[in-house]
Specification:
alpha+beta, Jelly Rolls, Arc Repressor Mutant, subunit A, 2 domains, six-stranded antiparallel sheet, five-stranded mixed sheet
Length: 336
């Protein structure tokens, strides 16, 4: 398990959080849910992404942007458009709400409007929960973009083909394609020339530190020592310690402790019936008191306090999509 795979594993497109719109100008779609991550891809045409308190970003055919919440944003045909914003969130826009066709997993080719032709927008909103995925969110800007002709270009061909038809299983296919697109977009952004990716991203490619990171993520509960990691990676203890700290920004065991505490924080919320001692054993602590002390040092509260104040995912309200489909969990408005 590499670091990126671990951090993104809880980020998944989910049924009713998908929309496809074929838009004829003028238009203005206001995405009001403030989802932790929203992926927007234009298949045909062009428009502008207008985040709150940020400069507008052009979005042309076969380009993708990812917007990080909780702030909302608008997709418009042009900056200063005369169109009245249509709220897109709990219920998708309908033709009666200004003429924009926007429905879950459904494509409308739209009209010719002013001769520029329709713009086809694909949107996937991601409800990102838990402390594990927070590390990924913390590494992202409010808006990041992937230009056309990148590694996600093949995904766009599949998306274009899928939204043009209405077949059984379409929603599942679209969800997975959006997940694929998100991974491609993030990888391209982290690898962009002159970029500043998080330390763990670059460190994964180091033959020594990358292997150490994979070991820590594959077996976080193992009784790791610097000496044991050094033996597994084929270098001396001092070499590993220095190289890891230089590339990751902290010593190996400090990294491991923070990773264990992130895992424990999510387990405390997800496994309401599990005791603190059981959670401690799961993340590599035989002594619950030692675990509690480490958790409070890293998280600022002991495990029991954290569990009481953290809102469990099961307690979040659900909403029913406008088309009468199955309910979906409301995205957490807090990042992460």
């Amino acid at each position: 398990m590499d670091v990126f795979s671990d951090l993104i594993r809880g980020v998944r497109a989910h049924g009713s959080l998908f929309g496809s719109s074929a838009l004829s100008p003028p238009w203005a779609l206001h995405f009001v849910d403030g989802a932790p991550l929203t992926l927007c891809t234009v298949l045909t045409g062009a428009g502008w992404i207008v985040p709150e308190d940020r400069p507008p970003e052009p979005l042309r055919a076969r380009e993708t942007v990812v917007v990080r919440g909780p702030a909302t944003f608008t997709f418009v045909d042009e900056v200063g458009t005369r169109a009245e914003p249509v709220a897109c969130g709990e219920h998708c826009a309908t033709p009666e709400q200004g003429g924009t066709r926007h429905r879950l997993g459904w494509n409308d080719r739209g009209g010719d409007g002013d001769g520029r032709g329709p713009t086809t927008l694909i949107v996937g909103a991601y409800p990102v929960h838990g402390e594990i995925s927070r590390r990924l969110l913390d590494a992202l800007p409010v808006v990041l973009r992937a230009d056309a002709d990148g590694t996600g270009d093949a995904v766009l061909d599949h998306l274009a083909a899928e939204v043009a038809v209405d077949t059984p299983g379409q929603q599942v296919v679209l969800d997975r394609l959006l997940d694929w697109m998100l991974v491609c977009t993030l990888r391209e952004w982290f690898d962009r020339p002159g970029g500043e990716p998080p330390a763990w991203w670059a460190a994964q490619r180091d033959p020594v530190v990358g292997e150490a990171l994979r070991l820590l993520h594959a077996e976080p509960a193992a009784p790791w020592t610097v000496a044991a990691l050094a033996e597994c990676t084929g270098v001396s203890r001092s070499t590993l310690a220095k190289r890891f700290a230089d590339l990751v920004g902290e010593p190996p065991l400090t990294y491991l402790t923070r990773w264990r505490m992130a895992l424990a924080a999510d387990l405390l919320v997800e496994r309401e019936a599990a005791t603190v001692a059981a959670i401690a054993r799961t993340v590599g602590y035989s002594d619950p008191f030692g675990f509690s002390a480490a958790f409070k040092r890293v998280r600022g509260a002991n495990p029991s306090e954290f569990r009481r104040t953290a809102a469990p995912a099961s307690a979040r309200p659900v909403r029913r999509p406008a088309d009468g489909g199955r309910p979906a969990e409301v995205p957490d408005p807090r990042p992460g």
